[in-house]
Amino acid sequence: MAVERITKWNFMGQPSGRGCNGAKRFLMHGRAYVAAVTILFATLVTVLTLEIAALVDLVASNGIAQVICSPGSLHTMVEPPETQLTRDFAAVRVLLKDPGDHFAQVRQVYEGAVHVPKAGRPRVWLAKKSERAAVFKADYQRQPWSGSLQQEADRIDAERGSVLAARIEAGLAAHDRDAVEAAFRQMFAVLLEELLVSIRERLGESVAVGRAFQHVRRYYGVGLEGYLTIQAPAAARSASTALDAMGRALDGLRTAAPLSRERFERERRMFVRTVHEALSSRAKSL
Hints:
By secondary structure, this protein is mainly α. It is built from ten helices and two strands, in the order ααααββαααααα. A two-stranded antiparallel sheet has the order 1-2. α7 (about 175-200) runs antiparallel to α8 (about 205-230) and α9 (about 235-255) packs antiparallel against α10 (about 260-285).
């Protein structure tokens, strides 16, 4: 009976000394846990805020900010290699997507007055020519690239009779984001076509070709993939499938698998046709 009374008494709220201390410890541990979770959450929010700020805080007193995230900065997976051309275009793309008026800064990057440095390097925008990174160019040579997006547009126009440079210039002058972006997409479609033709002509050089194909993936990812995924999802799926098939064909070449060259050429044609038709179709619908 005594035990029963004591048990009931404690259960009904008259705490024993040991029970009171246990409750206090529980409350203290609970508060510490909540505080730790709160601090962790605040830290994550702060980090995310800084990442976003690096993208939107693009205008400094010298005309462009010293911080722009690289295309792969928020990714954890292995990314295809960057080049000076893709870094510069990534900056142009971010500037165009920002609602502010950054057309003067876009022009600086487009004309080559400003180049985006490699991630992890000192954040100096006006890099010397001798320090500019190598870019995988259409002539298949990795060499120091002292050109600009504008020079690439001029070169393509001269070789193909297109008017990419004029379209970009007109878009920048009119502050027409859509016109500028559309012209750049056409430019990257041509660059991709050139890279793939160059790879086709050197399929016997397995190591160099494998490296070159990574640049194809980077060019597509930076210049076209996002747009096609949203605006032409069927074409985006076809293009991605063709890219993967070309990668498998190149792997087959290293192992002397039969018909690898034919498979690569078939998928190359499919990829180029899909990209050009999707861009042309979207242009006609606007």
